[in-house]
Amino acid sequence: MKKIPAALDTASRIADATDWSAAMEAIAIGQFRAGDKRGALHTANLIPHEINRHGVFMQIAFEQARSGHVQGAIETAGHIKAALRRDTVLLGIALIRARAHDIPGALITTCHMGSELARQRASREIAHL
Prior knowledge:
Strand content: under 5%
Number of domains: 1
Distance between the termini: 41 Å
Structural class: mainly alpha
Radius of gyration: 16 Å
C-alpha cells in the first residue's frame, strides 16, 4: 500500500489536467483491485474531469456486480451525479445480473434507475436475454 501515496504524489506533479485525470483514474482502479474500495472512491472523487470520474465509478460498479457484490455496485453507481450516466451504469449492472441467471435481481436493480423510461428500456433488454 506504500505505492499508492507515491503514485498520488507523482500524479499531483502532472501539469496537464487531462493527463492528471487519466493518472488518477488508473490509481483509483488500482486501489480498488488491491481491495481498497474506500481509497478508490476517494481518489475517484478527486478527479476533476467528470467523464473520467464517472468512468472510474462505472468500472468499479461493473467489477463489483461481476463478483457478486451487487449492493456495493448499486451504491457505487450512486456516486455518478449525471442521471443518464447513472441509469446507464445501473442498466449494465442489471444486465450483468441477468446474464448470471438472476432475473429477479436484475429487475430489482432497475428500480434504482431515475426514470420510468430507463426502467422500461432495461426491462425490455433483460427480457431479450
